[in-house]
Amino acid sequence: MPHRLFQRVAATIFTVITLGYAGISGAHEAGATMDPNGTTASFTGYALVTCIDDIGVTDYLVASIKDTSPPQDKLLVSLQIIKGSRAASTTDPVSGDGNFSPEVRVQGGSGVYQVLVNKTIAGARSFVVSYHCMTASNEHTATEIVVKQFE
Amino acid sequence: MLTTKRFNLSTQCVLAIAVLAGTTQIASAHTRLETATVNENTRITNNVIIGHGCGEKNVIGTSIVFPDGVDSTITVDGAANAGPLTAFVQNWGNLMQQNYSRAIFSFQDEKTDSNSNVVGFWAGGGNSLPHHLNGYIPFRSGAVVIEPTSCAKSVKFYISIADICEITDTAGFNADTVNLWTHNALGTAYDRTSTTDDGPASLTVIRTSALPSSCGTGVAVEVKPSAAQINRDMPIKLDGSQIWPK
């Protein structure tokens, strides 16, 4: 009987899980909504991306950001990569046009990169980040991410 | 003829003893990781191996929690350490990702913290795992990077696991309903009843980079979940509804 209960509950919830996953994009893309209440201009997302040498030796991390909310004047989203003494920044130049910002890369080898996302003014902003660890010959190496802050 | 009968009798005795001995061995097998030791900077495919059911009862689900490293208890060579985990590990968090499999159970999902980082996972429903067989729950064990300026020669993460044989509330936890491979003295309802802290599985990450010269032979770091995390993350919840415990 308990087994059947588990089955029933899990079956019901399975549909919800499937729908929930629709909001999460493919591997090495992550999306969310910054400043959901629309009151915090300083809203910052902070993540660590780990590049692992597997099919080759990691040379750099490349990333870009795309604003997926409707257009809003002067509300732009940006992304920065930092590792050691090197950093790079990119901004999606057109609010809500559905296109990614120019790619930026930091040539820091394997290891842990800091990645920040932020925006120009207060206002809820949905976005997608694309991030990839790459070899010097542009082959994809293993990539992990952990979000440390989103507020 | 007599010889044959004697042979048969002897064979039966031997087989019976072997089966009994085997059963004893299986019954004592804790739920553990297939690969419990891994070098830093290395990603592997791993499995939680469920060793047995609750007596004669099959396992109908499992709940697994990794320490989140936020409010975890850290020891260094056995001594309490109040520092942050980042003093020893650069990238802990979201590293253990569940691999989809319906080999045993039909349903599964990851458990996440408020930043959507995976802190554990569960599987259950569909077929049950026969109580006398091993069950493999697959996941990807991500690459852990030990802080190169630290003296850590290894970092051991304790993993709390509940193998569920019957869905009950926490008051109904007993040897017939759940096998708790958890710490014995956290002060939670999920604590294992044991005189020694022999419950949790573990994953030990071995440093491969050179230790700073001031470190000597290095130190062994261990990470255990807080009671608050176990209370928060051990239940199986989906869409706000708790499946287990009741």
What is the CATH C level class of the largest domain in chain B, in words? Mainly Beta
Low-pLDDT windows of residues of chain B: 1-27
Order of helices and strands of chain A: HEEEEEEEEE
Oligomer classification: heterodimer
Q: Per the principal axes of the C-alpha atoms, what is the gross shape of chain B?
A: globular
Query: What radius of gyration of chain B results from the CA coordinates?
Result: 21 Å
CATH class group of chain A:
Mainly Beta
Please estimate the helix content of chain A: 10-25%
Number of strands of chain A: 9
The percentage of residues in β strands of chain B lies in 35-45%
Task: Give the proportion of residues in helices of chain B.
Answer: 10-25%
List the domain count of chain B as a whole number: 2
Unreliable segments of chain A (pLDDT under 50, ≥5 consecutive)?
Answer: 1-26
Tell me the name of the CATH homologous superfamily of the largest domain in chain B: Uncharacterised protein YcnI-like PF07987, DUF1775
Mean pLDDT of chain A: 85
Q: What structural category arises from helix and sheet content of chain B? A: mainly beta
